[in-house]
Amino acid sequence: MKSGPGSHGIRRADHVAIAQFINKGELVLDVGCGDGQLMELLQSERGARTRGLEVEQAGVNRCVAKGLAVVQGNADADLPVYPDDAYDVAILSKTIQELARPKFVLDELSRIARRVIVSFRNYGHWRVRTTLMTTGRIPSLGQDTGWWSDGARRPCTARDMAELAAKAGLQIAAATAVNGKPVTGKSLTRLNWTAEDLVFVLERKKP
Amino acid sequence: MLAPARTLSGADGLKHLSVATPDQPLELDSGRTLDHVEIAYETWGTLNADKSNVVVVCHALTMDQFAASPNPVTNRPAWWPNVIGPGKAIDTDRFFVICSNILGGCMGSTGPSSRRPDGTHWGTDFPVITIADMVRAQIALLDKLGIQDVFLAIGGSIGGMQVLEWTIQARNRVFAAIPIAVAPRQSAQNIGFYEVGRQAIMADPNWRSGRYLDEGTRPDRGLAVARMAAHITYVSEASLKQKFDRRLQDRQSKTFGFDADFQIESYLRHQGQVFVDRFDANSYLYITRAMDYFDLATEHEGVLANAFRGLDTRFCVFSFSSDWHYTPEEARDLVRALNAAGCETSYVTIETDKGHDAFLLDEPEYEAALFGFIDAAAQARGLPKAQETPKANS
């Protein structure tokens, strides 16, 4: 199965990649949960307890109609009310590159949850690099249209994401290419070349 | 016109239970007590063996306990037939549904239109009550019925205030709660509108300082004006424009007088007139006062989240985009507090131009979300799942 946004069906490949890091009974906050596909997967296949936050009301209403616990809200603004350590895991599934304030959101999530799982498009992939070098243009990945599109995502690489995590006081506990095998943070160079879509499991740095 | 409001006679025959006696009086927030309290109620569906399928429906200001069947006193139809019934979100094939007339009301429960032991009517000697007092009486009613746990508490507007109070007072005895079109505190704007209504009632010469029942008069004009003012807040500018705009009522041109030239005037006058036949003016004073006093944060050290901290109840809050009586922004304040308290919370806003009253109307997305939340809660509670997809409104 091809990874990334082009895949169809109930189980999105990046959701499956995220799910492997979720343990039974854990309380999970899915930030930008859309219509709740990942939450359903985590409940049914991982036995997790899930909550969602979604900015689009239509997605929220669909989630609630499916019996999922979701609130309409804006990750860029609504997270400060959540108490410390309220969740075992917070997930940003293809969300962080859409946010207005990614660092703020990651800071907040690292306070609210003991682990933060981030899935994102890796613009460090060799095809992106070679396309940029040979054509002088930022290539689009998957369904991307022009860089000027509404809500266009922030192009960042695995190394860029690692930098943000460090600034948020987090370390990479595990990393994996979607459809790949998890590796430790030391293999970041290879992942940054080879993975189009990445999942990082971030934990607070030990003091 | 001089007979007592007809809701008062006839309501005595409705199903009711005594929830307070001189031995066990109802203690009120005001510090006063009530020695005799009757609560009138109606039920639908069947209580299951372990009494785990109880749904408490809390009614709004001018409603009554006849949420899912016609009111035999007023002959008005059920007020929530699209939500309660076989196969509906509140499925009477699965749940035991109870709705009681609120304390201070006028459909068989004790209120200012009730008689005291000496035979006179309470009138404005009735103690001022709060939303918490109303819920105290409801909890006492369920105790009398031998019911300890509530699967779901649900209600809109002042009914939503009661739902929030239920979760706090009947701590962790409420499995799921759905407060609809409500705020965690009454806004200054709402207090203002209801004060206009109260002043209209009290300015009616037939009000007689609240003793109109003993004196055989009826402050119908004042009560009708109160209803007219409030009714405007239950709809939206968009819906008024669509329904009436500036169209004239049965005439070609303005009369240069004070008749109901405009359709909106005629409509509001009609709303006022039909209201006085089914509602008691003093009940209107007491219930709106209870709403004014509602402010959960103030009762919890000024921090709204403190009201809900540690609750196991799962919440689903509903608001309506064009509701300016209880706005989506106020609902979000409630949701933020529930999240801050760590409660399992969902929040749905329905896009509609129908204003506050949308919570009573057919909105497919609203009914689908209600159905989904309630069905998931039922499964989590170990109650039977819905048999089929939600039935369309007949």
Structural account:
The complex is a heterodimer of chains A (207) and B (394). Chain A is α/β, with parallel strands linked by helices. Chain A has one domain (13-204): Vaccinia Virus protein VP39 (Rossmann fold, 3-Layer(aba) Sandwich). Chain A is 33% helix and 22% strand. Chain A contains eight helices and seven strands; from the N terminus they run αβαβαβαβαβααβαβ. Chain A has helices at 13-19, 37-46, 57-65, 75-78, 102-112, 126-135, 158-167, 188-194, and strands spanning 27-31, 49-54, 70-72, 87-93, 113-121, 170-177, 197-204. A seven-stranded mixed sheet of chain A has the order 3-2-1-4-5-7-6, sandwiched between helices. In chain A, strand 2, helix 3 and strand 3 (70-72) form a beta-alpha-beta unit. The longest helix of chain A has 11 residues, at 102-112. Chain B is of the alpha/beta class and 394 residues long. Chain B folds into two domains: 11-189 and 295-380, Rossmann fold, CATH 3.40.50.1820; 190-289, Rna Polymerase Sigma Factor, Chain: A. Chain B is 31% helix and 15% strand. Chain B is built from ten helices and twelve strands. In chain B, strands 1-4-8-5-9-10-11-12 form an eight-stranded mixed sheet, sandwiched between helices. Chain B is globular, with a radius of gyration of 21 Å. In chain B, 53% of the residues are buried. Mean pLDDT of chain B is 94; it is low at 1-7. Chain A binds chain B through residues 51, 57, 60-61, 63-73, 78, 81-83, 86, and chain B through 305, 314, 316, 332, 335-337, 339-342, 344-351, 365, 368-369, 371-373, 375-377, 379.
